[in-house]
Amino acid sequence: MNANPAAVAASREFLIDGRPLRVFDGLLPNVAEYVQALSRAAFTRTEVARPETAEYKHWATEIKLETLMRQPVFEFTRQAVAGFCTAQADYKPYRAYTNVASYGDMLFTHTDCLPEQHDLTALWYLCERWDLEWGGETLFYDTQDEIACAVTPRPGRLVVFDGAIKHVGRPPNRICYAPRYTFAIKFERVARDGDGER
Asked: Model pTM greater than 0.85?
Protein backbone atom coordinates (compact mmCIF):
# COMPACT_ATOMS: atom_id res chain seq x y z
CA MET A 1 0.00 0.00 0.00
CA ASN A 2 1.28 3.48 -0.79
CA ALA A 3 0.63 4.86 2.70
CA ASN A 4 0.14 3.48 6.17
CA PRO A 5 -3.14 4.87 7.46
CA ALA A 6 -4.18 4.21 11.02
CA ALA A 7 -5.95 0.91 11.40
CA VAL A 8 -9.62 0.87 12.37
CA ALA A 9 -11.19 -1.44 14.94
CA ALA A 10 -13.05 -4.54 13.84
CA SER A 11 -16.53 -5.29 15.17
CA ARG A 12 -15.83 -9.06 15.11
CA GLU A 13 -12.63 -11.08 14.79
CA PHE A 14 -11.97 -14.76 14.12
CA LEU A 15 -9.00 -17.05 13.65
CA ILE A 16 -9.72 -19.97 11.34
CA ASP A 17 -6.90 -22.51 11.51
CA GLY A 18 -4.62 -19.65 12.54
CA ARG A 19 -5.71 -17.40 9.66
CA PRO A 20 -7.33 -14.04 10.47
CA LEU A 21 -10.79 -12.82 9.53
CA ARG A 22 -12.14 -9.46 10.67
CA VAL A 23 -15.54 -7.84 10.19
CA PHE A 24 -15.94 -4.05 10.05
CA ASP A 25 -19.20 -2.12 10.28
CA GLY A 26 -20.03 1.56 9.87
CA LEU A 27 -17.07 2.56 7.68
CA LEU A 28 -18.91 3.43 4.46
CA PRO A 29 -21.39 6.34 4.84
CA ASN A 30 -22.63 6.52 1.22
CA VAL A 31 -23.59 2.92 0.47
CA ALA A 32 -26.64 3.99 -1.55
CA GLU A 33 -24.46 5.78 -4.12
CA TYR A 34 -22.50 2.58 -4.81
CA VAL A 35 -25.68 0.50 -5.06
CA GLN A 36 -27.18 2.96 -7.55
CA ALA A 37 -24.01 2.89 -9.65
CA LEU A 38 -23.94 -0.92 -9.64
CA SER A 39 -27.58 -1.06 -10.79
CA ARG A 40 -26.37 0.56 -14.04
CA ALA A 41 -23.12 -1.45 -14.38
CA ALA A 42 -22.45 -3.94 -17.15
CA PHE A 43 -22.07 -7.39 -15.58
CA THR A 44 -20.83 -10.36 -17.59
CA ARG A 45 -20.97 -14.04 -16.71
CA THR A 46 -17.20 -14.53 -16.61
CA GLU A 47 -16.18 -15.26 -13.00
CA VAL A 48 -15.18 -18.83 -12.07
CA ALA A 49 -14.87 -20.14 -8.50
CA ARG A 50 -12.32 -22.86 -9.27
CA PRO A 51 -11.13 -24.77 -12.37
CA GLU A 52 -13.40 -27.79 -11.96
CA THR A 53 -16.50 -25.54 -11.83
CA ALA A 54 -15.51 -23.49 -14.90
CA GLU A 55 -18.71 -24.34 -16.77
CA TYR A 56 -20.71 -22.55 -14.04
CA LYS A 57 -19.75 -18.92 -14.46
CA HIS A 58 -20.85 -16.09 -12.15
CA TRP A 59 -21.84 -12.51 -12.91
CA ALA A 60 -19.09 -9.94 -12.32
CA THR A 61 -17.84 -6.54 -13.41
CA GLU A 62 -14.19 -5.49 -13.15
CA ILE A 63 -12.99 -2.17 -11.75
CA LYS A 64 -9.68 -0.72 -12.92
CA LEU A 65 -7.23 -0.19 -10.07
CA GLU A 66 -6.62 3.43 -11.10
CA THR A 67 -10.37 4.08 -10.78
CA LEU A 68 -10.60 2.16 -7.50
CA MET A 69 -7.86 4.20 -5.84
CA ARG A 70 -9.78 7.44 -6.46
CA GLN A 71 -12.88 6.11 -4.67
CA PRO A 72 -13.56 6.81 -0.98
CA VAL A 73 -14.29 3.10 -0.48
CA PHE A 74 -10.63 2.34 -1.14
CA GLU A 75 -9.44 4.60 1.68
CA PHE A 76 -11.79 2.84 4.10
CA THR A 77 -10.48 -0.50 2.84
CA ARG A 78 -6.87 0.62 3.37
CA GLN A 79 -7.66 1.57 6.95
CA ALA A 80 -9.06 -1.92 7.61
CA VAL A 81 -6.17 -3.68 5.84
CA ALA A 82 -3.61 -1.59 7.78
CA GLY A 83 -4.28 -3.75 10.82
CA PHE A 84 -2.93 -6.79 8.95
CA CYS A 85 0.37 -5.13 7.99
CA THR A 86 3.54 -5.97 9.93
CA ALA A 87 7.08 -4.65 10.11
CA GLN A 88 8.00 -7.36 7.61
CA ALA A 89 5.06 -7.29 5.20
CA ASP A 90 2.66 -4.84 3.59
CA TYR A 91 -0.23 -5.31 1.14
CA LYS A 92 -0.96 -3.83 -2.26
CA PRO A 93 -4.12 -4.27 -4.36
CA TYR A 94 -3.91 -6.27 -7.57
CA ARG A 95 -7.56 -6.78 -8.58
CA ALA A 96 -11.01 -5.33 -7.87
CA TYR A 97 -14.41 -6.49 -9.07
CA THR A 98 -18.05 -6.78 -8.03
CA ASN A 99 -20.07 -9.99 -8.04
CA VAL A 100 -23.84 -10.04 -8.21
CA ALA A 101 -26.01 -13.02 -7.25
CA SER A 102 -29.76 -13.54 -7.30
CA TYR A 103 -32.09 -16.31 -6.22
CA GLY A 104 -31.38 -19.48 -8.21
CA ASP A 105 -27.69 -18.76 -8.88
CA MET A 106 -25.18 -21.45 -7.94
CA LEU A 107 -22.05 -20.36 -6.11
CA PHE A 108 -19.17 -22.69 -5.18
CA THR A 109 -16.68 -22.97 -2.33
CA HIS A 110 -13.19 -21.75 -3.18
CA THR A 111 -10.04 -20.11 -1.88
CA ASP A 112 -8.53 -16.89 -3.23
CA CYS A 113 -4.85 -17.81 -2.88
CA LEU A 114 -2.48 -20.63 -2.01
CA PRO A 115 -1.87 -21.23 1.72
CA GLU A 116 1.72 -19.95 1.63
CA GLN A 117 0.80 -16.65 -0.06
CA HIS A 118 -1.17 -15.07 2.83
CA ASP A 119 -2.91 -12.67 0.43
CA LEU A 120 -5.94 -10.78 1.72
CA THR A 121 -9.44 -10.39 0.35
CA ALA A 122 -11.48 -7.34 1.33
CA LEU A 123 -15.16 -8.05 0.66
CA TRP A 124 -17.76 -5.27 0.86
CA TYR A 125 -21.50 -5.94 1.05
CA LEU A 126 -23.16 -3.21 -0.99
CA CYS A 127 -26.87 -3.00 -0.26
CA GLU A 128 -29.18 -0.31 1.03
CA ARG A 129 -30.92 -2.80 3.32
CA TRP A 130 -30.78 -6.54 3.93
CA ASP A 131 -33.30 -8.73 5.72
CA LEU A 132 -32.02 -11.67 7.74
CA GLU A 133 -34.56 -13.94 6.01
CA TRP A 134 -33.05 -13.13 2.62
CA GLY A 135 -30.02 -15.36 3.29
CA GLY A 136 -26.98 -14.48 1.19
CA GLU A 137 -24.43 -15.18 3.95
CA THR A 138 -20.77 -15.78 3.26
CA LEU A 139 -19.70 -19.05 4.88
CA PHE A 140 -16.09 -19.64 5.93
CA TYR A 141 -14.75 -23.17 6.46
CA ASP A 142 -11.91 -24.69 8.43
CA THR A 143 -9.55 -27.35 7.06
CA GLN A 144 -12.06 -30.05 8.08
CA ASP A 145 -14.71 -28.43 5.84
CA GLU A 146 -16.79 -27.43 8.87
CA ILE A 147 -18.37 -23.97 8.94
CA ALA A 148 -16.13 -21.86 11.17
CA CYS A 149 -18.15 -18.66 10.84
CA ALA A 150 -20.85 -17.04 8.75
CA VAL A 151 -20.98 -13.35 7.86
CA THR A 152 -24.38 -11.85 7.14
CA PRO A 153 -24.74 -9.11 4.52
CA ARG A 154 -25.38 -5.68 6.00
CA PRO A 155 -25.25 -2.28 4.29
CA GLY A 156 -21.61 -1.25 3.96
CA ARG A 157 -20.24 -4.19 5.96
CA LEU A 158 -16.64 -5.15 5.18
CA VAL A 159 -14.95 -8.48 5.89
CA VAL A 160 -11.18 -8.81 5.42
CA PHE A 161 -9.68 -12.29 5.52
CA ASP A 162 -6.72 -14.44 4.58
CA GLY A 163 -7.47 -15.57 1.03
CA ALA A 164 -6.51 -19.16 1.82
CA ILE A 165 -9.63 -19.59 4.00
CA LYS A 166 -12.16 -21.64 2.03
CA HIS A 167 -15.41 -19.71 1.62
CA VAL A 168 -18.58 -19.38 -0.41
CA GLY A 169 -21.20 -16.69 -0.88
CA ARG A 170 -24.71 -18.09 -0.68
CA PRO A 171 -27.28 -16.68 -3.11
CA PRO A 172 -30.36 -14.90 -1.77
CA ASN A 173 -33.47 -16.87 -0.80
CA ARG A 174 -36.59 -16.97 -2.94
CA ILE A 175 -38.31 -14.12 -1.09
CA CYS A 176 -35.44 -11.72 -1.87
CA TYR A 177 -35.77 -9.58 -4.99
CA ALA A 178 -32.71 -7.45 -4.25
CA PRO A 179 -29.40 -8.27 -5.93
CA ARG A 180 -26.62 -9.49 -3.65
CA TYR A 181 -23.66 -7.26 -4.54
CA THR A 182 -20.24 -8.08 -3.10
CA PHE A 183 -17.32 -5.86 -4.01
CA ALA A 184 -13.98 -7.68 -3.70
CA ILE A 185 -10.54 -6.10 -3.54
CA LYS A 186 -7.66 -8.59 -3.64
CA PHE A 187 -4.38 -7.67 -1.93
CA GLU A 188 -1.04 -9.41 -2.38
CA ARG A 189 1.46 -9.61 0.42
CA VAL A 190 4.73 -7.79 -0.30
CA ALA A 191 7.86 -7.92 1.83
CA ARG A 192 9.35 -4.74 3.24
CA ASP A 193 13.09 -4.16 3.19
CA GLY A 194 15.11 -3.81 6.40
CA ASP A 195 13.98 -0.20 6.89
CA GLY A 196 10.32 -1.17 6.83
CA GLU A 197 9.85 0.00 3.23
CA ARG A 198 9.03 -1.99 0.13
From this structure: yes
